[in-house]
Write a structure and sequence with these properties.
Residues 1-91 form the Chorismate mutase domain. GO terms for molecular function: chorismate mutase activity. This is chorismate mutase. InterPro entries: Chorismate_II_sf, Chorismate_mutase-related, CM_bact, CM_dom_sf, CM_II_prokaryot. It is built from three helices and no strands. The radius of gyration is 17 Å and the shape is elongated. With 93 residues, it is mainly α. Helix 1 packs parallel to helix 3 (69-92) and helix 2 (48-64) packs antiparallel against helix 3. Helix content is 84%, strand content 0%. The chain has a single domain, classed as Chorismate Mutase Domain, subunit A (Up-down Bundle), CATH 1.20.59.
């Protein structure tokens, strides 16, 4: 016997997870283009000022959305670190 309420919640979670994956894929397509541009323009792979501004912006958005800002910062930091890794690889050619 299945619990229909739980089943509906899980379906919503599945839909949200699918949207998150699609959004992350789209974000990484754009950041890969940024990395290629930085490599051809001889710009550094990392931009600490931009990173800190983004983290501050995301923390504020998280508070407004009633989401733990610490979690949001960790999540964004993970993404930023991965993007920087891709940019460093692009700079090496």
């Amino acid at each position: 016997m299945t619990d229909e309420v739980l089943k509906r919640y899980r379906k919503s979670i599945d839909n949200i997870d699918a949207a998150l994956v699609c959004l992350l894929a789209e974000r990484f397509k754009v950041t890969q283009a940024v990395g290629a541009y930085k490599a051809t323009a001889n710009l550094p792979p990392a931009d600490p000022g931009r990173e800190e501004a983004q983290i501050a912006r995301l923390r504020a958005l998280s508070e407004e959305a009633e989401l733990d800002p610490e979690f949001s910062e960790k999540f964004l930091r993970f993404i930023i670190d991965e993007v920087i890794r891709h940019h460093q690889a692009a700079a090496r050619g």
